[in-house]
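Think of the structure tokens as a kind of shorthand, similar to the way a musician reads notation: each symbol stands for something richer, in this case the local conformation of the backbone. In the example below we present two proteins back to back. Begin with the first one, reading the sequence and then the tokens, and try to describe in your own words what changes along the chain.
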Amino acid sequence: MKTKIYLIIVLLSIPIVSMANIPIDSTKVTDKKVFTVVLDAGHGGKDSGKYVAQTAEKDIALKVVKLLGKQLESHTEIKVVYTRTTDKFLELYQRADIANNSKADLFVSVHCNAAAATAAKGNETWVLGIHRNADNLEVVQRENSVILLEENYKEKYVGFDPNDPSSFATNLMIQEEYLDNSIEMGTNVQSRFQTQLSRKNRGVKQAGFAVLRLSYMPSVLIETGFLTNEEERTFLRSTSGQKKVANSIYVAVLDYQKNREINLFEVEQVVTSETSTAAAAGNNIVYKVQISASSNKLEAQSYNFKSLPEISREKEGGIYRYFTGNFSSLKEVSELKEKAIAKGYTSAFIVIYEKGERRRL
């Protein structure tokens, strides 16, 4: 009997001894976080938006948004929230409230364009800004004019003039931590429209749209085409055209989400008896932390950025990117990123310079 007991103990011990030699990963990846997208069909109800040749902007925007949402909802890791799914009027602050309360990762507002010149055509995507050139101001005034249909709008939008985007300049600084991501999403949209639909690329632009001003997350407003252009109006009214527009935006959202998947996992630290070194010396790689992207040019000095060290600035088009640090060690730059986040730069991320090119880590 004793012999049988000893044999059982030995057999039960074998797996334990064997498993002791199996390396344990230092991290364990749990379920993905949900990526929340708020889809906003512009206008609605008593606000038809642009109305040309019996074609209402509000109707096209809603149809495109529903098609887009259906595609996104096929992904289990994406949650879709709609500001409206019927022909109803929503005040601009209500649209932004839906996005903010949903803690959205991305806000996408869909519209149609119009112009006095019927030859005007193409697609453009807008992000928040206070640029005051005449073309920008015309679009801003048209999209913001819905505020005038709202009751007590002066109380709801204190200090904001729908005809003057510079009236919310103080709010813009709060939003600028999202600007870089908004521009990236806008660029994705424009690229997809151009390559998939062969439409004229009118670029990513900045202006003071109220719905973007009130939404505290990366946000874009997409002008899908000109209702005043007969060719584009016919295209946007067609089911085929609406599906193609929705699909282009859909792929752009997936492109945007894919670039953020490194941050879409919950990582649980697991204690191990050994640590490993990931980086090799002498690889001529430089790491920095991007802390801000802005249309405002600031001196690249520590006192302008909450005493963070080694501030540098790079210009791309009309946008200035600001960085802190200059390391060859991933550990050191990771520590600096956490420091930057603690100081209020909550969207800070690491960039890597390798072979003369900069990319997000």
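Once you have a description of the first chain, move to the second and do the same.
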Amino acid sequence: MEDIISLGVGEPDFVTPWRVREACFYALEQGYTTYTSNRGMPELRVAIANYLHKYDLHYDPLTEIIVTIGGSEAIDIAMRTILSPGDEILIPDPGYVSYYPCAILTGATPVAVTTCASDDFKLTKEAILGKITEKTKAIMLCFPNNPTGAIMTHSDWQPIVDLILERDLFVISDEIYAELTYGEKHVSIAAFPEMKERTVVVSGMSKAFAMTGWRIGYVTGPEYLIKEMLKIHQYTIMCAPIMGQMAALEALQHGEKDKDAMIKEYDQRRRLVVEGFRSIGLPCHEPKGAFYAFPDIRNTGLTSAQFAERLLIEGKVAVVPGEVFGQSGEGFIRCSYATSVKQLETAIERIGLFLTQLDRIEA
């Protein structure tokens, strides 16, 4: 189909900053084409450790960090290390689409924990309590959240931390969007007292540094867990590509201004999109993280899949139906604002026209 505006892909529209690409070129020119340590380049692990201090996270680069093939590998090896057949893992719903399959591949059972628009899609202690059983081994977290853009503050986390400690659960915390918060600084659950020893933090270079195709992520955690994850990583992956690691090192050491400029642009787009959806009659909670809006389309009478399909065909705008992110996503659509302001404005206009035509048909 021609002339489609896509709000579907969860990927920055920015090109990786030149200084980062140049570091890769230089690495190739200098002959950096070999394996690295299974854990990743020592200097990159030091840079990751230093970078995480901003979130009050403190890890030994020698024993508590592994450089992975994106955050996706980190999630996979964390689940394969922590979970066993018969275990249950709690997963906030709606949530990123790969968590369920990764859990199932370990033989564990994923259990949805509902989050609601009325709570700004924040996770609550009450919702978790309703799902914990004797088989619950761990909880998977993703805040800032994909697809809702929800964040968790220190006060939001505290009762959940108390519950996790009381029930002796492991935590896998996907913090790939940590840099992408607006108005409030990201709070990592691993920074709370007694949480580091039971928490694996997953992150990477893809979102904040516009490096999706480089596939450089990392996982941090207590040495006893990282030691076991390393066994899976070294026998299945060996190591992340050295050229990508060199680029990631440059981004962490000298890419702060480039990153901040992109975040400022995302914030502008975020406000435009939320106001735009509300102006055309679609309720939309304010996303305070990531680069997604999650408008409510229930007043149209269509399912999220029906809405997305008809909008694509009739309105020429691609969005993701909320149902793919779990049952709690039904009645919503995910719209990425990681595209130009002009494209976003046109997309809002097209969606507004689609809604007007839909009303006429229904009438």
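Compare your description with these statements about the second chain. DSSP finds eleven helices and twelve strands in the chain.
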